[in-house]
Amino acid sequence: MMKIKKLSIGFIGAGRVGITLGRYFFAKNQKIAGYYSKTYSNTRQAAEFTQSTACRSVEEILNQSEIVFITVPDSNIYEVYLQLKNYDLRNKILCHCSGALSADIFNDIYALGAYGFSVHPVFAIDDKTESYKDMPNAFFTIEGSNEKMYVIENLLQELGNNYQIIEANQKQQYHTALVMASNLAIGLYHMSAKLLEDCGFDEEAVQNALSPLYLYNAVNLSEKGCCQALTGPIDRNDLSTVQKHINVLESFGNEEYLSTYNALSRELIKIAKQKYPDMNYSEMENLLSSPNS
């Protein structure tokens, strides 16, 4: 990948994502032009945090930037784009950071002589002044203009982050995968907590019991992969224990808990078969193929 000169990067939106990316880019010696947001106090805070310019208009940040990151909520991205179209966009690179939306939201950008991208960090940004410290571990996905793809690739290579280029028609499936691995895992944790509460655990005891288990499993999974991280009754083909779990969930009176258990357990069987190709899981498959699953 050829090296290019550093381009000035501006941000429209001074929330957690905009400030985190700006500070991270700044720490990695990128050229931060500045910020613009509807609330000037937020603009000023972001600019001070990145030693850049607090702009008072869309036009001002556009004039100072070669790459513009639109770091506003998904529902506001197109509104910002409509504002930008009132100005000369020739040779500008516009990037949004939505996981669910593609660069197609910049629907007529080529006619304007500009280039559009979605640049999405696979990372939970929860603190606008601290999250940037963990950004070296973030994986990015890029989707957008083929002509200027090398510019965004070069930026991420200079940052040192791993990345994947995907197509616009893959964005929805991609985002679904991320939600399953992150947000839906919270739902599963919540189900576990409710089962423990029904056993008499208070909130503190629930956290004390589940947090080490959850964290160790997450680390093990991330370091070793699904096959090596798999433990428990499916891993050891323990029909008796799985049947007891099903009995418990049937008596618990929540069909969603049972269907979730069955669906995820069937997925674990697929992993277990890879791990133990000589083991027969047919009885376990039959057990988890009930009408309630």
Q: What labels would you give this structure?
A:
293 residues, alpha/beta, eight-stranded mixed β-sheet, 12 helices, 49% helix, 13% strand, elongated
Structure description:
By secondary structure, the chain is an alpha/beta fold. 49% of the residues lie in helices and 13% in strands. It contains twelve helices and eight strands. It has helices at residues 16-27, 40-49, 58-64, 74-84, 149-159, 171-181, 183-198, 203-224, 226-229, 239-252, 255-275, 282-287, and strands at residues 8-12, 31-36, 53-54, 67-70, 93-96, 115-122, 139-144, 163-165. It has an eight-stranded mixed β-sheet with strand order 3-2-1-4-5-6-7-8, with helices on both faces. Helix 7 packs across helix 8 (203-224) and helix 10 (239-252) runs antiparallel to helix 11. It starts with 7 loop residues before the first strand and ends in a 6-residue tail after the last helix. The mean pLDDT is 95.
What's the helix and strand layout?
Layout: E1 8-12, H1 16-27, E2 31-36, H2 40-49, E3 53-54, H3 58-64, E4 67-70, H4 74-84, E5 93-96, E6 115-122, E7 139-144, H5 149-159, E8 163-165, H6 171-181, H7 183-198, H8 203-224, H9 226-229, H10 239-252, H11 255-275, H12 282-287
Parallel strand pairs: 1-2, 1-4, 2-3, 4-5, 5-6, 7-8
Antiparallel strand pairs: 6-7
Helix pairs in contact: 7-8, 10-11
Give a short summary of the structure.
The protein has 293 residues and is α/β, with parallel strands linked by helices. It is built from twelve helices and eight strands.
